[in-house]
Amino acid sequence: ALSVQCHFGNADAVFRPFLGVGGFKSHISDVQVTAPAAPAATNIRGRSGAGYIVTAGLDMNINETWFARLDARLLYASDMRLDTAAAPDQAMKGSMPVAGFSVGARF
Question: How far is 8 from 91, CA to CA, in rounded Å?
Fold first, then answer.
């Protein structure tokens, strides 16, 4: 994924909210799921895809070097495919929410 973020507030403020946009490319290789409870949907395979991301988050400055980050991302898949025995080669459209927590350092 590659994104651009716009941070609000002063760089030395304790809390700094941000918004971002970007894109992602996923690479799925040799992933196969078997669903014994749904025989018509056996051999589910995902294929690589791409899409775009919107992000909202909050950085908390711990000191001059270290910070903690909470963020929420919504990934919009624009080019992903799903193969099943019942419905081969189906397009997957939609979004996937992702939440994250990280600790980082500025240098």
Answer: 38
